[in-house]
Amino acid sequence: MNDITTLMSHDHRSCDESFARAETAISRGKWDEGTAELEKFIAELETHFTAEESILFPRFESVTGMTEGPTKVMRGEHADMRDAVERMRDAVARRDKDDYAGEAETLLILMQQHNMKEENVLYPMCDAQLAGENLPPTLTKQLGREQAA
Amino acid sequence: MTAADLSLSYEAAPTFSTPLRFFLTAPLFGALAGGVLLLVPDLLGSRWTPGALALTHLIAVGFMLNIMFGALFQILPVVAGAAIPNARVVAGIVHVGLATGAASLTWGLGAGSPPFLTAAVVLLGITFGVFLVAAGYGLRRTPIAQATPRDLRFALLGFGIAATLGMALAMILSGGLSLPLATVVKLHVGWAWLGGSGLLLAATSWVVVPMFQITPNYPARLTRYWALLTCAALVAWSAAVLAGFSLLEFILAIALAALSGAFAITTLRLQSRSRRSVPDNTTRAFQLAMSCMIAGLLCIVAAHRFDHDAWPVLAGILILHGGFVTAIVGMLYKIVPFLAWLHLSQAGMKAPNMKKLQPDGPVRKHLIAHAVALTVLLIAALSGSTLVVRAAGVLVMLEFGLLFANLLRVLGAYRIARNA
C-alpha cells in the first residue's frame, strides 16, 4: 500500500532510528560519533518537514481551503521541534550528557505526540482529500528514500 | 471546520488541571488499598471475601479508572482527533463522581452495606453515562483510518458493558435486583478486564510502544484483527456463559487467554528489539507489566484445572497490580512531565527539559518499591501469613505514596518554572 499515511509513517520510523543512533552514541560518551549521528538525524528530520511544508500541506490547504486548520497546528509543532533540536545541538557542543538526555527525551515525546496526530488524523485526512493527486511519488522523491513497502 | 480540524491544536487540549486532578487522586486510592491490607489481613484467603472485593475495586475503579479517564481527556484529541466538549466541566463531574462512587462502592462491598452500594450505582452510573456520552460526541465524526482510534471506541464500549454489569451486581447485592449472581460476576470480570481495560491498554500500546521505545511496529495483522477477535470472542464467551454451555465457555476462555498472551508476548518481543540502547523507566515498567500479565494468565488456566482458592487471588494480583498498575504508571511518567513542559512552553515560558521536571532517580525508586510490594503481596497470598499480608499493606502504601510524591514533584517544578 503506497498511500500517504503509509509512506510518511514509514519515514517517521526512519527518523526515530536515526534519533536512537545519536542517543546511543552520546550515552556512551562517543561525542564525535554522536555529533555526526545527531547531524544526520537533524538532516533527515528537516527533509521530512520540508516534504510536508512544501508539498503535502500546501496541496491539502489548496484542495480543502483549510489554511487555519490542522496544517497550521503541525507547522507550529515543527517550529517547536526545531527549537528542541537546537537545544540538543547546544548540549552536545557543551559535552553535557545529562542535559542532552533531558533535551532528547523532550524532543522524543514532542515528536511522537506530533507523529500520532499526523498518522492517526492528518495523513488519513490527506489520503481521503488528495486521492486523485498521486502525491506519493513526489513525496518519495523529496524524501530521497526508498518508498515504503 | 469539523471537530477533527480543531482538535489537534493546543487550544483544544484540556487545561493541565483536567487530567492532573485524576492523576493525583488515583494514588490515594492505591494507598488506601494498602491500608485495607494492613487493617484486614485475612482478606486474601479467597477472591470472594468482602475485603478482597473492596481491595479489587479500590485498585480497579479508584486507581485504574481514575488514570484511564484522566488520560482519555488528554489523548482522545491526539490519537483520535476527538475533543471532548466542555472538557473542564465534564472532567469535574466525572472526577467527583468517580472518586465518591469508588469510595461508596468499596465501603459498600467491604462492609456489606446496601445503602452504600445503591449510592455507588447512582454515582458511578452518572459518571460513566456523562463520560461515555461526551467521548462518544467527540468521536462521532472523526476518521477511523487507524487501529488505535477504532480500538479506543471498542474499549469505551467494553467499559460501558462492564459498568452496566457492575451496577447490576451492586443492585443484586443490595437486594434491589434478582439475577444469578455468579453468572453476572463472571461476565462483569470478563468485560472489565478484557473488554475495557485490556482493549484500552492494547489500543494505547499500538502507538506508545513503537513510538516511545523505538521498536518495530506491531505486526499489521495483530493491530488489524486483535481487538475485533477479542470482542468477538468476548461476545461468544458471554453467550456461552449465559446459555450454560460450560465446555464452549472453557474453550472460549482459553481463546481469550491466548489472545491476551499473544499481545503480551508480542509486546515483549518488540521491546527486546528496541533501538534505544538504555531501556528507560517506562520500558522497564512495560516489561514487568507484560511478564505479570503472562504469569496471571497461567494462574487463570491453573485455576480452571486445580480447585484451590490461591490461584484466582494470584491471578488477580498479577493482572491488576502487576499488569495494569505497572503499565499505567509507566505511561503516567511520560505523560505528566510532558504536559507540564507543554503548558509551560505554550504559555511562552522557558520550560525545563523532561528530566529536570522529573528526574529518573525518584521514578526508579518508586518502580523498585512497586516491584517489591508486588513480590511480597504474592508471597502473602501464597503463605496466608497475617504478618506478610500486613507487610505487603505497608509496602503498597509506600509505593503509592512515592508515586504521589513524584507527581507532586513535577507539579512543584512546573510551578517554580511558571513563577520564574
TrEMBL record, chain A:
Gene3D superfamilies: nmb1532 protein domain like (1.20.120.520). This is Hemerythrin domain-containing protein. InterPro entries: Hemerythrin-like (IPR012312). Residues 4-126 form the Hemerythrin-like domain. It comes from Aromatoleum anaerobium. It comes from the Bacteria.
TrEMBL record, chain B:
The chain crosses the membrane at residues 20-40, 52-77, 89-110, 116-140, 152-179, 191-213, 225-244, 250-268, 288-306, 318-342, 363-382, 388-408. Keywords: Membrane, Transmembrane, Transmembrane helix. It comes from the Bacteria. This is Permease.
